[in-house]
Amino acid sequence: MKASTNDFNQSNFIGSTHFGRLFRGKFEGKCVTVKTWDEEFLESISSKYNDENLIINEEVKFWTNPITKGHPNLVTLIGYCWEKDVKCVVYDLNPMDTLHNVLVKDELNWIQRINVIHEVAKLLKFIHSQEKQNMTFNISASHVLLDKEDWGFNVEDGIAMTKIAMQCIDFFPMNRPTMKEVLQDLENLVALQRLSDTRPTKREKNYVSL
């Protein structure tokens, strides 16, 4: 893992999560994402539960769960390293950046924001459909990784997006759309954008939550 990330070099650093860091790496000729944990966090968990392997066991259990494995908005686990000096997992993902970083840099145009919201909405719908006792998610902008894309900008898309957002914050809760309705509106908006964008260089974008 040290070799794949150039000894976790700062040039390969993507961003920080709540309890660790994300790096770009090369594994068997493939671009991957490597997640590490803060040593202090690992020690506190090991001490609290008297199990030094708890974190990696739970990580592998989650990503190999039939419910989550293969979901289009979740990463695929390639493998892990749990040695004394290196503790990390490897995901099959070549990221551009975290959602948190691109929002801070203000690098997303309207249609890119729509695509992000659309994908996150699909993931939220998936989460809401699961039994709470079986699924635990911690979703934040620092846990969402974005691939590169090439989408244009349409003013009408921005107007439509604003209307959806205003409906979601309506003063009267009974007037607010359900997550299913929001997702349907976003899917319609994305479909219209794709039909109107005829550029041959257009590429789709995948969004995944870590």
TrEMBL record:
The keyword 4Fe-4S does not apply. Keywords: Cell membrane, Kinase, Membrane, Receptor, Transferase. This is Putative cysteine-rich receptor-like protein kinase 35. GO terms for cellular component: plasma membrane. It is found in: Cell membrane. The lineage of its organism: Eukaryota, Viridiplantae, Streptophyta, Embryophyta, Tracheophyta. Transmembrane segments: none annotated. Residues 8-210 form the Protein kinase domain. The keyword Transferase applies. GO terms for molecular function: ATP binding; protein kinase activity.
